[in-house]
Amino acid sequence: xxxxxxxxxxxxxxxxxxxxxxxxxxxxxxxxxxxxxxxxxxxxxxxxxxxxxxxxxxxxxxxxxxxxxxxxxxxxxxxxxxxxxxxxxxxxxxxxxxxxxxxxxxxxxxxxxxxxxxxxxxxxxxxxxxxxxxxxxxxxxxxxxxxxxxxxxxxxxxxxxxxxxxxxxxxxxxxxxxxxxx
Length: 182
Known about the structure:
With 182 residues, this protein is mainly alpha-helical. The chain has helices at residues 26-46, 56-77, 91-106, 121-143, 148-171; strands at residues 12-14, 20-22, 115-116, 177-178. β1 (12-14) and β2 (20-22) form a beta hairpin. α1 runs antiparallel to α4 (121-143), α3 (91-106) packs parallel to α5 and α4 packs antiparallel against α5 (148-171). It is elongated, with a radius of gyration of 18 Å.
């Protein structure tokens, strides 16, 4: 199978079910931003490869599940209104994020100030993934008719990415820098 099809050379692409839209369509923007967040999560996980710390395998396994779910979120966003979505989020997907947020947050020092994104490369990449996920959420809202669970999932995922960045920085003893009032 060839990688290139030439079908998008004139600025259009296909949604699920073959519906052609402009590449700047709100749905394309939304699922493309999910793909961007997914790629940044992959970068973050690649930055953990050489690290050794307790719980690393659990983190990697959990993020593999998140990356798979994000792929499906993108597919749902790429499905035109009125068409059947082949894989849909369930409330359990969101509850799983909430459980992990609570678990990781319980191990972190209390947040007393705003923190600046950074720390270990993996933590910093997760902060970037968080901001990309927030953009994906805004793009999904702009579509209008979207499964409410998609919006909840993206919202909760951005919360999880914030906690995950802090958690990884904590595990790897990377300092958190707080916002200084001038």
